Automatic annotation (TrEMBL):
The lineage of its organism: Bacteria, Pseudomonadati, Bacteroidota, Bacteroidia, Marinilabiliales. GO terms for cellular component: plasma membrane. This is TIGR01666 family membrane protein. Residues 403-523 form the Integral membrane bound transporter domain. The chain crosses the membrane at residues 48-68, 104-122, 129-149, 155-174, 445-476, 482-500, 512-530. It is found in: Cell membrane. It is a multi-pass membrane protein. Pfam families: FUSC-like (PF12805), FUSC_2 (PF13515).
């Protein structure tokens, strides 16, 4: 009997350990659990005492505080929290004081929105706080009619945010490096998804390759954005710490992640051609399997970071790569065969994963790019009519004014939901606004219908439980699927109003109508006010992408000519800017698909340009990934490389002339490949050949009728 009891206890402990591990492996779940727990602490005692308004209003403050939380070192989080409480208090107090004068309230709403949006452009810390301040102001407008006294909302809304902030800050002080683990874990998970998708190229045909590369371009957007967020968090910790050497492990993981991303983004040959070669087919399948295993290794390291466990590199990857090299020797592939270069790249990637198991001692941590402009300069730089953030701020303010006017003139009950809908639906671009519109409307409709059906069956305790469950699921889905999160926040609001006035069901249909009005206003404004259709931006985006690729290629040639063993910040900045420009082009191609039909006439050409530019970046990345290779005569690499560099950036040449000169370079490289015996030299020449060939094809496309004047007119 005693043995069975002990087994039962251990099972319970193991079950708890598994659940804890699941939450640790999913940072969004952990954050959702934290916010929901704080809400529960606020709601349950107040609801038991019969203070429903106080419970719900404080919970809304918790919600706003959680939504506006910033990714800072604990010291920076203290500053953010103080700024948040003050801005929330000012926002809610202004609403209560100006409520008797609608004209002043409406005017103040629009003007403060412009100031808050521009202040958010000064940095990530201010962006979260200012968004929360706008949100709290709208919450105060919604609740002002049912507040027992004018001063309660300016106390309860900032109070809820403060309570959540203190709990979150306390947890962060107990685990100060958890934030770094979470962001780096997200980075390695993003790398895993990229590697998994890239494995579909091995083997692949031409059509399949185009589809996979299009998906890779979009996954690269996610990857580069994640790297940028990691960089910002590392800089935040570095600024706040007296001894930055404690950050060495996380800087090491970040530098390895960047190197792995460069290798993952690299291309060595057109894989559809290699797949058609019967000798290469089996080895292509082995490469695809290796990429799957590397993706698994990346997920495994992310899990180790998030759970605090030790990381053991999977031995299977090394076995597969060794088998691949054996197969290459068995088939007797030429020394300059692209599969040899691919296998070497995989071997280096596997070595990088092995380096994650230990942290080397370095005297100085690597520098990271940072924006050192003073705050006033960051704010001032946005005060240009051509700046997208100023246009977005004014567009949002105009929508708020129109929505507020409709609410007041038509005397719509809880018409402030029109403004709330505009805040969440209106985005800087047409395509993003359109996506949010459908997600918001569908999510609200689903939430209203399902919420009404559920709430009618529940008692008061059941509604409180449903409210907390909806809050948890809202946070879980917020960054994964916005439309699903809207369903749960709608149920949350329904339960909240039912607790306050037992009118949750009654206000849901007006809420749906307000949502439709707000969505229409957001969509109309982005169509009518200073729209920038993507097809007009494509020529400039392509020009920027080519210029950034050229700068990246130039930085790589400089590394070949003068290897840098101390600080490669300039090289990393050039690489980052090239990927950012490629991402802007990829996003424009994606957005053009959702624009009005008459503006989609260049969709196919935009796809081709995006595809070719991403291919060029991939070949340049491969050239950069192998810059550490030992070459006897680097001059024979530098000279043709500089020819390609000059042609890529020579704006004095017409597209036809550039195409002709690039074709000559391609022919010259073909001749070099035939006569040079060095294996390493031939591998580098293959990469230069591919870079020149893609440059030739881009020049050929530019020489066609896809010119700036054609597009804009």
């Amino acid at each position: 009997m005693m043995i069975r009891r002990k087994e039962s206890v251990w099972r319970k402990i193991n079950l708890r350990g598994r659940w804890l591990r699941v939450f640790l492996m999913h940072p969004d779940w952990l954050m959702a659990a934290k916010a929901t727990a704080v809400m529960g602490v606020v709601i349950l005692p107040l609801e038991i005492l019969g203070y429903s308004f106080f419970a719900v209003t404080t919970a809304l403050g918790v919600l706003a505080g959680a939504l506006s939380e910033t990714d800072d070192h604990p010291r920076g989080r203290v500053k953010s929290l103080a700024l948040k409480v003050v801005s929330f208090g000012v926002s809610s107090l202004s609403v209560e004081l100006l409520r008797p004068w609608p004209v002043l309230l409406g005017g103040g709403l629009g003007l403060s929105t412009i100031v808050f949006i521009l202040a958010g452009g000064m940095g990530e810390r201010y962006r979260g706080v200012t968004f929360g301040a706008i949100l709290v102001g709208i919450y105060a407008m919604i609740g002002s009619g049912i507040s027992p006294a004018w001063y309660w909302q300016p106390i309860l809304l900032p109070g809820g945010a403060l309570f959540y902030g203190l709990i979150s800050l306390g947890i962060l002080y107990l685990h100060p490096y958890r934030l770094l683990d979470e962001h780096l874990g997200r980075g390695y998970m993003a790398l895993s998804r990229y590697l998994d998708e890239k494995s579909h190229l091995f083997p692949s045909d031409r059509d399949n390759q185009r589809e996979v590369r299009a998906r890779l371009a979009l996954l690269n957007v996610e990857m580069v954005n994640t790297l940028d967020r990691i960089k910002e968090v590392l800089n935040s910790y570095r600024d706040a710490m007296d001894d930055e050497s404690d950050l060495a492990p996380w800087f090491h993981y970040f530098m390895v992640l960047q190197a792995l991303h460069e290798r993952a983004a690299s291309s060595h040959e057109r894989y559809d051609l290699l797949s058609n070669d019967p000798r290469s087919r089996e080895m292509m399948e082995m490469i695809g399997h290796t990429l799957h295993e590397l993706a698994h290794a990346s997920r495994k390291f992310a899990d180790a970071l998030l759970t605090g466990s030790d990381y053991q590199p999977p031995a299977s990857v090394g076995w597969i790569i060794q088998s691949l090299f054996n197969k290459i020797e068995t088939f007797g592939l030429e020394k300059n065969h692209p599969l040899r270069l691919l296998a070497a790249n995989l071997e280096q990637a596997n070595a990088s994963f092995s380096r994650l198991a230990s942290v080397p001692r370095v005297p100085v941590l690597p520098r990271l790019l940072r924006d050192d402009r003073p705050l006033w300069k960051k704010f001032q730089d946005q005060l240009s009519w051509r700046h997208p953030r100023l246009r977005y701020a004014i567009r949002l303010a105009i929508c708020f004014w129109i929505g507020f006017l409709i609410s007041e003139v038509a005397d719509i009950e809880k018409g402030e939901w029109i403004i709330l809908t505009v805040l969440f639906v209106l985005q800087p671009s047409y395509s993003a606004t359109r996506r949010r519109l459908f997600q918001r409307v569908i999510g609200t409709l689903s939430g209203v219908i399902s919420g009404i059906l559920i709430v009618k069956l529940l008692t008061l305790p059941g509604q409180v439980l449903l409210m907390l469950t909806s809050a948890f699921l809202f946070f879980v889905w917020l960054k994964r699927q916005y439309s699903v999160s809207v369903v749960f926040i709608t149920i949350f609001v329904l339960c909240a109003f039912n607790l306050i006035s037992n009118m949750g069901v009654a206000v849901m249909w007006p809420r749906l109508a307000d949502t439709l009005i707000g969505a229409f206003l957001a969509m109309a404004s982005v169509r009518l006010f200073w729209h920038q259709w993507q097809y007009k931006k494509l020529p400039q985006l392509l020009s920027d992408a080519l210029e950034k690729n050229r700068a990246y290629f130039k930085a790589i040639l400089a590394e070949y000519e003068h290897p840098n063993t101390t600080d490669d910040l300039a090289y990393r900045i050039a690489r980052r800017k090239a990927h950012q420009a490629d991402n802007a082009l990829a996003m424009a191609w994606q957005d053009i698909q959702t624009e009005p039909k008459k503006y989609r006439q260049f969709h196919q050409r935009a796809f081709k340009m995006t595809y070719l530019n991403h291919a060029l970046l991939s070949f340049i990345s491969a050239f950069g990934a192998h810059r550490g290779s030992v070459i006897d005569n680097t001059g024979e690499i530098i000279i043709p490389g500089k020819k390609i560099l000059d042609l890529l950036g020579n704006k004095s040449l017409s597209p036809q002339e550039r195409h002709a000169h690039m074709r000559d370079v391609v022919n010259e490289l073909q001749e070099r490949l035939k006569h040079h015996p060095s294996k390493t030299f031939q591998q580098q020449q293959i990469l230069l050949y591919n870079i020149a060939d893609i440059g030739r094809r881009l020049a050929e496309e530019t020489a066609d009728d896809y010119s700036s004047s054609n597009i804009i007119e």
